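Predict structure. Chain length: 353.
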Amino acid sequence: MAELGFPWLDTTLRDIRYALRSLRRSPGFAITTIVSLTLGLGASLAVFTVADNLLVRPLPYRNASRLVMVWEAERGTYDDRNVVSPANYLDWKAQKNVFDGMAAFTPVRTVLTDQRRTDEFREQSMTADFFPLLGIYPLRGRLFTREEDRDPGQVVLISYRLWQSWFGGESDTIGRKVQLNSLPVTIIGILPPDFYFLDHKIDLWGPLGLKTAQDYRRTSGRWLMSLGRLRPNVKLSRGQALMTELAARLEHAYPEFNRNWTIHLEPLRDSLFHEAKTPLLVLLAAVVMLLAVALRECRESAARSIQFAKPGDRRARIARSGALASRSAVAHRKPSAGCSGWSSRCDLRPMER
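Prediction complete.
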């Protein structure tokens, strides 16, 4: 075959032809190589894709890197992700030195009824700040207002999935009257098809209806979940320190309710993938090891192929490998005092003493 005039391309083509001849002569080597690389690369690609989605790719929320879950934590226990008291949440929200926005929510189960059917769905009840904090806007309709949040039980938002399955994607779904737990409400918005928060199975979102004047420390315990967005000039460590100080003040002000309770800030990504993060990192390490073993197996198989190749082919491969190694060594060697720059011509005369 004629030379193409590009040394690197000619060398590559010769290597490919040699590899094909080797594979034809050694089907066992070919099968081992293909299976090893397929398993190693396939598993690596699958795990790296999952790791990218869960650990690297930005979350689909506004300023996601500044979003944190705000938990209560009881000293002396291993649980630092406890639900929070509505009263404590309202006191946290009144502080302006850590967060530039906070929201609270809680999951519930709700019976939805329209004129044709009745079924139970998962719902998130939240404060009016929740969707603006995440930067989420409805696909159709609108979000509920602060006034509607103070007087809950009148409006509801539905998922895109529920809009398609129950209402057939009909355009007049906005404004339709339905019943939640036998109480009449109006559908005011449909959320985007890819939206979820913590739970993929949520289909309904409604106002939480916290009363700022109510003394929740007397009437209820801890049952809320809360979310905050750190101020631009507040790092996570600084925010944690400030919230710990606030928890100490609340413990002093309300010792019967807040004794031994503090606050824990958790980055939203860690909270979303809390249970999957550690197993995923272990699996990622295992796949990297699998890929390394597969590559080593291929290298050893290639070495055995060269060892048992015909003498002419073996000498050619060894000579080519030696030439490439020599070329690499020359390319990385610094010029000596007897050479002019990077020129290939050197003055080999003895140096004068």
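Summary: Residues 149 and 207 are 5 Å apart (CA to CA).
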